[in-house]
Amino acid sequence: MSRYRGPRVKIIRRLGALPGLTNKTFKSKSSYIGQSPATKKISQYRIRLEEKQKLRFHYGLTERQSLKYVRIARKAKGSTGQVLLQLLEMRLDNILFRSGIAPTIPSARQLVNHRHILINNNTINIPSYDCRSRDIITIKDRPKSQSMVRKNLKFLQKQKIPNHLNFDLIHLKGLVHQIIDREWISLKINELLVVEYYSRRV
């Protein structure tokens, strides 16, 4: 299954806020006058499915990528759900989003694909690149690259940079300190339900 490229507000109406997908706001369907929220009983399968979809749409993953990360997390030490989220948070496109360099993860992916980003002075054009502790992120020294990022940085004031990252607004240079802690992960999700959803496939 390919990466989702359709209407983003439609997705957050159904699944809730997904800051990595879009920074748009919306009025939920149940908030309209005379309309009450649905009372139909929701199955456990649907609950797990929706949590999995939150993960996919927030981080911009294909189904194959999601399954790959779950398999890696299962082989690692510690809680599978927590390791899964840490793996996704350390992707380059997410690091750029969380640093305020890009307003959303899709826009961060575009910056990487167009070769505007350097990691330890090496050009990286793979959005899924796995960042590690002490990695230094810089913006390519080109007028177009610099102007695009400075334009995006206005969104930085709207969010807190997690404690595992640091970004110098003047020199446009970021640093990854360590693996992110669970408390600093912005997505509201029950990662254990995601692991349960994939349990029969891994």
TrEMBL record:
Signal peptide (residue range): none
Family of this protein: Belongs to the universal ribosomal protein uS4 family.
This protein's name: Small ribosomal subunit protein uS4c
Chain ranges of the Small ribosomal subunit protein uS4 N-terminal domain: 3-89
One Gene Ontology cellular component: chloroplast
Assembly behavior: Part of the 30S ribosomal subunit. Contacts protein S5. The interaction surface between S4 and S5 is involved in control of translational fidelity.
Location of the RNA-binding S4 domain: 90-154
